Amino acid sequence: MAHPDQLSRGVQAARLAGEAADWLVEGAALDRRDSSLYHGLAGVVLALHEAHQHFGDDRYGEAVVRGADVLSEQVDDLDDCSLYFGLAGLAVALRALGRDAAADRAISRVRDRFDGQRWNAMFELFTGNAGIGLGALHAGDVDLAVMAVTPYLTTFDRTPGGVNWAVRPSPARSHHIAHGTLGIVYALARVGDAAGREDMIELALAGAADVVSRNEAGPDGFLVPHSDPPHRPDLIERYSYGWCNGPVGDAQVFRLLAEVTADGVWTELGDRCWRTVRESGLPHRIRPGFWDNNARCCGTAGVLALACDRIVERADDFEFANALVDDLTARATVDETGARWSNYEHRAAAPELEPRTGWAMGNAGILRELLRYARLSEGGAHGYAVAWPDQPVTGNAPLAASPAV
To answer: What average pLDDT does the chain have?
Structure first.
């Protein structure tokens, strides 16, 4: 039985998530300008599907149907093949929504554009092979997933700690999940596990070893720089704490490696990541630029995702998750149109940014995490209506069956 105070918190979080979904529906977020999983319609539709499964509100279900119709129509017009900005992400969304024919078309177009080595100049999770492999696997095409990650087997470089890869056409070697070694590690381990490819898993472990060797937080913590040599140091901070380039995302990779290898060292590393995150001061904005983002990709909602994973898997209490939700609640703008969040860019002349709709920087990513937190607070389901390709599930069944829409 959930504690009454925690139950009340869950009810309040669900209410705020519902208001965030209302803003998406009322704000005509289901437009055709951007179909991507990252900022665009695919991520918004999956968030509204989450809201529909949670609340049973027909407004959300109808919006999902309209959005799925648009995504199905866009498959034949989109050339980008990536997970977060292209066809692989569309395939993930369409498969989850039961639009199998459209998902199959998207996967076929991805396959047709493969040159045997890569799809574009980037070679990582966001826009390159690693993400495409995860998207293909999530959409049910193991063969394409294997094709996508196989080039990593012959393109790595040995390092003092293990191996890494050139992920972009520049000297910088990035280390984390979004654009670096750990994103490739995740894809190799996930696809290797699904396909029974021990060689892929072994290479994933060598990539993870390289990143672990770069830890600068001592034996009890875990903090690795963004990249070496530093990539765009005039714009990118050397150390981050969120999902994309920090210990929150690193911990998600370590969760997967613990699952695949059954080796407790990865669980320990995940605990060290979490200790560093909790001691960093977030979600407080302790200096300009330190913690200006509420969202899923590199903000508070992404930290909440890991906090909830740990409540399920590591029996953590709700203390830090509550602090994150309190911060999201305090920073929300709520009116008759619903709820939304503005991120902050301290270097801009007008630093308060316009609210965004999508998964990465806006409502879609935030409301998914609030709804999961609400269910956990109420003693309910551990997971999501639709799992995400680069976040390990917590071992329970989905929230509900995902019917065709």
So the answer is: 95
Reported confidence tier of residue 381, pLDDT bands at 50, 70, 90: confident
Is residue 402 over pLDDT 70? no
> Which residue is associated with the tokens 């890494």?
164
The pLDDT tens digits of the residues spanning 36-45 come to 999 999 999 9
Dig out the tokens for 178 from the structure.
Answer: 């979004």
pLDDT attached to residue 405:
77
Mean pLDDT over residues 57-72, rounded? Answer: 95
- The angle subtended at Cα 79 by Cα 133 and Cα 29, nearest 5°, is 90
Residue 122: CB atoms within 10 A of its CB come to 18
Beta 333-335 vs 173-174: how paired, if at all? unpaired
C-alpha span between 216 and 294 (Å, rounded) = 26
Q: Is the dihedral of CA 7, 12, 16, 21 positive or negative?
A: positive
Q: Return the sign of the alpha-carbon dihedral for residues 202, 207, 210, 213.
A: negative
Residue 166: partners with Cβ closer than 8 Å, 6 or more residues away: 123, 155, 157, 173
